[in-house]
Design goal:
The chain is α+β, with helices and mostly antiparallel strands and 159 residues long. Helix content is 38%, strand content 15%. A four-stranded antiparallel β-sheet has the order 2-1-4-3.
């Protein structure tokens, strides 16, 4: 019995382990491009915004809070980003789903945009707050597109 256990223990390191499948992820460089483009977009329009860029589990990758943004601006931007990252939809589109009032992590105010690869992999979400909701959404979309990513799930290729 001891020999068998020893033999198995010696063979285990020689056995190939299953390879981990690489999955695209939102890296800091792309998140920073989203943030910085949105900051530039807002500055050109004399807006003051808070921007939060999250990975799909809701962890922040980067954020910014411009001078003179309301105290709640950062929290609202995070709320929008969490909703976009977790549900993979723009927050403006969430209202059409008629979610129950008070449902956690669901924002229905424009300004939260999902971040997708060209292949349709959800990388996270960006939330912007401080301008009019349409401006917040346009700022977030400009950032996502500047990073070469998609602000909505791309349609599957035709077969």
């Amino acid at each position: 019995m001891v020999r068998l256990a020893l033999s198995v223990a010696l063979l285990l390191p020689a056995m190939p382990l299953g390879a981990q499948t690489a999955r695209p992820r939102l890296d800091y460089a792309n998140a920073a491009t989203i943030r910085d483009t949105c900051l530039h977009w807002a500055t050109e329009r004399k807006l003051r915004v808070a921007i939060v860029v999250l990975e799909p589990h809701g962890m922040p990758v980067t954020l910014a809070h411009m001078d003179d943004v309301s105290v709640a601006g950062g929290e609202i931007a995070r709320w929008k980003a969490v909703s976009a990252a977790k549900f993979g939809r723009a927050t403006a589109d969430m209202a059409a789903l008629n979610p129950p009032a008070g449902m956690p992590n669901v924002a229905t105010l424009a300004g939260g945009i999902p971040i997708y690869t060209a292949d349709g992999v959800l990388l996270g979400g960006v939330g912007v707050s401080g301008g009019k909701p349409a401006d917040d959404a346009a700022c977030a979309t400009a950032g996502v597109e500047a990073a070469g990513l998609k602000a909505a799930r791309p349609a599957p290729p035709a077969q």
